[in-house]
Amino acid sequence: MTKIGLEIHCQLTKLESKLFCNCKADYRNLPTNQNICPVCVGLPGSLPMLNKKAVEKAALISLALGCKIPSKIGFFRKNYFYPDLPKNFQITQYNAYGDTSIGYDGKIEIEGKEIRIRRIQLEEDPGRLVYEGSSQQTMITLVDYNRAGTPLVEIVTEPDFETPKQVRVFLNVLADLVENIGVSDPYLEGALRVDGNISIGDGNRVEIKNVGSFRDIEKALHFEITRQQSLLDRNISIHAETRHWDDARKITVSSRSKEEEQDYRYLPEADIPIVLIENNTVTSLSKQMPESIVAKKERYVKKYGIPLQVANVLSSDKFYSDMFEKAHTQNNAKEVANIITTDLMGFADTREKKLELKVTPKHISDLADAIINNKLTRNSGKTALQEMIKTGKYLKEIMSTLDLGQVNDASSIEQVILEVFSEEEKAVSEAKQNPDTINYLVGKVMRKTKGKADPTITLEIIRRKLLS
Ligand SMILES: [Zn+2]
Fold first, then answer.
1. Domain check: are 172 and 204 in the same one?
2. Å from CA of 228 to ligand 1 middle
3. Are residues 279 and 208 in the same domain?
4. pTM, full prediction
5. Contact 165, 200 (CB under 8 A)
6. Which of 31, 184, 185, 321 lies most in the core, judged by the most C-beta atoms within 10 Å?
7. Is residue 463 within 8 Å of 438, Cβ to Cβ?
8. Are 272 and 195 contained in the same domain?
9. Cα R_g (the chain), whole angstroms
10. Cβ neighbours of 298 (radius 10 Å)
11. 233 CB neighbour count, 10 Å cutoff
12. Are 157 and 241 part of one and the same domain?
């Protein structure tokens, strides 16, 4: 069995200043090594000052992911030596000496599967290393400390994912969520970064780092499943190690044996006092929270009678659930949900495609109304939607140019049925014996009317004729 866990680093890009100093949190597009001060580069004698807003934003993320928030939090020094870390320690959070991080024991449901959140912690981002070319081949590494000290929230999940696809769905939901609660713009370069750890069967856990995008983490996990499986098939054991995603070659490569927790020698950060989080702070933060995905799903099922499966898919996707909210009325909600999840989502499933989509809530609402009021069959509805996607035209225009209106005048349907009956004598006598084959005849009528005949009336007339 494949087990995948994630560590996601989410920058709090909506903040003005860094986590422990007054340098800008938005380090992007600034001249190299200009957005720094003695605190964020850790000069001797400098003292960190905790950004209160960062604690609130991290608490918001914790609440959104169903985590518990402790009544006090502390900070720790995580010691390691690396060029992106000028202090040689990172100020982060850790569960020890009676302290916990800002959030713990959460859970979130993704397409009916529960993903447990182990821990959410607030920490500072290190500087940025820039390799010239592939990290495996380059001799030159540049370092820019503008990012050092940027507020970062680390979200650690339990190893509850079974497939790379579940990981992608989760990450899309998470990106929507942090955007929705106003803590981060997940689409800024480097704002949301993911490390994965993956094990197969009884094999050791392998960590994948350095993955630049959501699409790449899915690819990297697929690559690892294949690599680990082929080792296991040959009875070769899997090393516990950290592997880097080599974007140029689209493979993971071994980088170093994985540090154990004790290698980091966590020490309480004595320069930052323990922070108390009052109950009423949590209560007032809770009030800022938009509706959760689970609550949204339940509303879809209860208020509109949307089937659970459809509600699951729709509520997990912010773009499409926003479209649903704008397009539906109490009357057409079920049909709107149906059109979005069965036809539209399959067409535009990536952020790029969604942004290019010419279909607006009005398009979908018009379409659903026409189907409900028998002006259009579901079949013709699909054709109309394809035309909307292609041209952005509204339904009225499409119906007249493509001649899609539903035929529900019984005598013209009967005319077509008579034609079909004379062409399909064998099928007609078969249907008289075995009513299960009647759909074949309905299909013929639909083909002749290009899917426009009202299916209920068609079926009714065919049944009556078969009896006579
Ligand atoms: Zn600074």
1. yes
2. 43
3. yes
4. 0.72
5. no
6. 184
7. yes
8. yes
9. 29
10. 15
11. 8
12. yes
Same domain for 376 and 428?
A: no
Q: Give 429-451 pLDDT, tens digit per residue.
A: 888 888 888 888 888 888 888 77
40 Cα to the center of ligand 1, angstroms: 4
Residue 267 CA, ligand 1 centroid: distance in Å: 22
- Which range marks the domain in which residue 308 is found? 291-402
pLDDT band for position 323 (cuts 50, 70, 90): very high
Q: By C-alpha distance, which of 1, 4, 2, 3 is closest to 196?
A: 4
Q: What is the DSSP letter of 156?
A: E
The answer to whether 440 touches 365, Cβ cutoff 8 Å, is: no
341-372 tens-digit pLDDT: 998 998 887 778 888 889 999 999 999 999 99
Q: Hey, how many other C-beta atoms are within 10 angstroms of the C-beta on 71?
A: 11
Task: Give the distance (Å) from ligand 1 centre to CA of residue 179.
Answer: 25
**Tens of pLDDT along 271-297?**
999 999 999 999 999 888 888 777 899
Residue type at 260 in one-letter notation: E
Q: Could you write out the DSSP letters of every residue in 220-246?
A: HHHHHHHHHHHHHHTTPPPP-EEEEEE
Nearest Cα to 334, choosing from 359, 301, 360? 301
